[in-house]
Amino acid sequence: MLHLLLAAALAVQEPQQPPPPPPQDTTEGALRVYLDCGSCDLDFLRTEITFVNWMRDRHDAQVYLLVSTQSTGAGGTEYTLTLIGQQQFEGRGDTLRYVSRPAEPDDAVRRGLAHVMALGLARYVAQTPLAEEVEVRRRPSAGGPGGPPGPRAGQHDPWNYWVFRASLTANLYGEASYRSTSLYNTLSANRITDRWKLTFSVSANSNNARSQVTDTSWYVQKTHSSYFNGLVVRSLGRHWSAGLKTSASSSSSYNRDWNAAAGPAIEYDVWPYSESTRRLLRINYSLNLEHDRYDTLTVYQRWSENLVSHSLEVALTSVQRWGTLNLSFNGTQYLHDLRLWDYGVFGGFNLNLVRGLSFSGFLSYQRIHDQLYLPAAEATPYQILTRQVQLATSYYYSTFFGLSYTFGSIYNNIVNPRFGGSGGSTMTISM
Fold it and tell me: What is the b/e burial string over 138-169, where b = at least 16 CB atoms within 10 angstroms of the residue's CB?
């Protein structure tokens, strides 16, 4: 009887609807786009901008979208979006910019970037079969439809472009035979306009560690440092600028009870500064007046001294379709003894060699012949093992290289948030 009742109940239930078909990996006829952006939330962009096909390899794309960034004076980020046409769009190109506010939430930044990105792609989408399915509408402003412009429009700035920041960081770690405490705090004040750049910062750091050597004895390691840096720069046109550098520091690791320095500098950029997000080649020369007071007697039998040095820095940055390249050279020489010098080179790159194959890495190398601060007394074994003090050296280097090859499906549209990730979708460009 029970079996009959269950069968009757099931018979009168409405038939279940079939499950919806799974989402398609591609949108037929949609614009094919390759995004080159190391700081973008790709999962979010793929779920927000669904009227294009995101390509895994740049060679398959009709539009190469290159996003480069640089910090703004207020502490935000300027995103430069360069759209480069390929295949049937070869020869076309657009450049758009989006500027985030300082301390703006990550979600607001990625939504603002997605909005500008969608606007840039709309021109190319309009010439694809998917154009009829994409809606472009105006987003209401802060005052409602037809109201006054939103808060990003130019307004009176009661702070006159000054931006202040303060931070305090504490790190505590411990186990049965080891304890460590680190404190780090900073304070900065910046004012950056088209003509002037003023940056000032103060920071202090202290580290205390206790390691158990025997059942009854502990080794205590203490280091501290503090720094002040100031920079005042005046723009002299599209290629030239001049400034004044100042600094002060104290460091137990470098045997410096007190160091103060100041001096003028001049810089020339081969390309206009306005192109710095894509390419920059600057040459900077500075003169430095320095006073040092040491914690202990140095290897040159000095407790304090006044020094004069000059420095040269050449830096190249290039962000292109073939990849990113950063090269720099820096050198310093003391004028009272030209045999005291140091110079270094740095190279960082991420190169797109052929379809699916990329090569990345960096190399930093410094030649050192000016360690005037080295203490005359020999370091203890504990100081050497824990790197509590800087030891004599004629060089240092750091390097990394990596090779990556990717093959398979040319599409890169799907976002699957299971076991981590994010998702969402829309088919509307909002303005």
Answer: eeeeeeeeeeeeeeeeeeeeeeeeebeeeeee
